[in-house]
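Model: Ready when you are.
Researcher: Fold this.
Model:
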Amino acid sequence: MKNLDTMTKDERSLLLFLESRATDQSGRVQTRHMNEADMKIVERWNAEGFVKFGRIRSADLSDLGSHWCFLSDEAWTLAHAERKARAYRTWTNRQWKTTDENRNLIEGELG
C-alpha cells in the first residue's frame, strides 16, 4: 500500500497529472508532457496495478494523446489526498489577500 509520505515529489506530481487526464480527458495522456523519469515511474505503477497505462491503438490516435491511463481505487484515494494537501499549501503560501483580509488589516491599523 502506497502513502503520500513515502512518495517522492515527482511521484505525487505525476499522480496528479494522471488524475487530471483520467478526469478531464477520459484517460488520454499526451506523453510530451512527461519526461523519462515520469515514464519509468508510470511503467512501475502499471506493473504494480497502481495506475494502468498503455498505448492507444493507432486507429484511435489523435492530438489528445497517444496513451491512456486508468487509476486504481488506491491511486484515486491518494490523488484526492494530495490535491487537497497541495491546495492547502498553495493557499497558505499565496501572495495576495482577500478583500476581507485587507479590510480586517486596515481596521486593525485604525482601531
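Researcher: Now this one.
Model:
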Amino acid sequence: MYRFFERAVAVVALLANMDVFVRLVSPEIMISEKDPRMSSTDLKPGLIMVQALIYLLLIVVIAPRLSRVLGAMGKIRLLTALYALSVASILWSIDPMLTFRRDILLCAWLVVGVYLGERYSMDEFLDLLGWAFGIVITLSVALYFIHPSYVLDPSHAPAWRGLCLHKNSFGACMTLGALVFATCARRTRPFVNYSFCAASMLMIFLSHSATALLLGLVILISTPLWRLAKLPKAQLVPIGIIAAIVIARLAIWISGPPLDFLNALGRDATLTGRTHLWAPVMVAISRRPLLGYGYDVFWQGLKGESLQAAISAGWLAPSSHNGYLELALGLGIPALVLFAFIYISLITSALRYSRRTPGATARWPIAFAIFVAVQNAVESTLLGRNAIDCLLLVVIFTALKLEEYRNARREPTWAMNVVLPEERATLHPELA
C-alpha cells in the first residue's frame, strides 16, 4: 500500500512540474512572452493550498529516505555545486530577497529530483513518467470536448496549451511524452504505449510549437546514432569525426544568415523576436561576466537592468529564451562552464549506460540529453524552479551516477576484499 502511495506522490510531483495543478486550480493563469510580470504574489489562496499539500506529501515520502538522498547528493558533486552557486548568488544578487525566495523552491526540487533518481530504477521511473504524460493527454482531450477554450492558448489561438501555461511548454512536454511512450512500448503494454505515443505526436502538431517540432525532428534524426554507442571504441572514433562534421555543417546552415532554414519552414527568422533579445542579453552579461545578477532576478519588467534589454529588443521578455544565456546572466560565465562539465559528464554516463544495458531503455538518457541541449537553445529551462526537463535532468543524472558507483563497487578489486580467508589463500597464495 505504501509503495503505491509513494508512486502516486511521484506522479503528482511530475504533474506539478508541468503546471497541471496551476491550470486546474486557476485556468485563467497564463504566461505570455509580452508579460513577464507574473509572480508568486499573484497566486490565489486555493493554489497555495494545493501546492502546500503537494510539498507535504513529498516531505512524507522523502523523510524516511533523507539519509540516502543526502548520500546521493554527494555522488553528484558537479550538479550540487551548480545549485550551491545559485544559493551563494544571494550575496551579490541585485535583489537578494527575491533570489532567496526562488532559491528555496529551486533547492526543494533538487531534493525531489535526487530522491526520484535514488528511489527508482530507470525502468520504474519511465513508467511513472508514462502515467504522468498519459494523465496530461487524457485530461487535455477530455477538457477540449467539455470546454475548448480551457486547453487553447488565448494568445496563440487555435494552438493548444493543454494543461500547461503556454503552447511551447505543452509542445515540449508532448515531445518528451512521445519519446517516453515509444521507449516503454518495447517493454510493456505495446498497444497502449504506442497509442499514447501517437496521441503525443498529434498534440505536438496541435500546439503549433516550432520548438517542439524542431525537438522531435532532431531526436528522430539522431535515433540511428544511438545504436552506434554499442560499437567498439575503435570504430566510434572515425564515426564520431564524420558525425561531428555533418552536425557542424547542419549548424552552419541552420544558424547562418539569413536563416534560410527557418525561412524554408515558413517560420519567423527572428524566432519570434528571440534574436533581437539575445543581443542586449549578451551586453548585460558582459557587464557582470563573473558573478551575474543573481539567480532568476534579472527580468523585472520595466524596472532595473531588464528595462534596457526590453527597449533594445522592442518587447517585454520574461526570460532570455535561451537557457545558456539565462544561466550566464544569473550566475555568470563560470556557471556556464560548470554546466558544460555537467553535460559532458551526463553524455559520458549515458553512453556507458547504453553500452551495458539491454533494451530500448538504454537509449533514453541519450535522447533526453539531446532534448535538453536543443530545448535550451530557444527556451530558458536549464535551471528552472518548476520545469519538468530541469527536474528530469536531476533525476537522470542522479540515477546514472549512482549506478556507476554501484558498478564500481562490484569490480573484482573490491570483491577480493570480501572473499573468505580460506578462499583467498587458495586463490591467491601470495596473500595468505
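Researcher: Key takeaway?
Model: Confidence is low (pLDDT under 50) at residues 31-42, 413-432.
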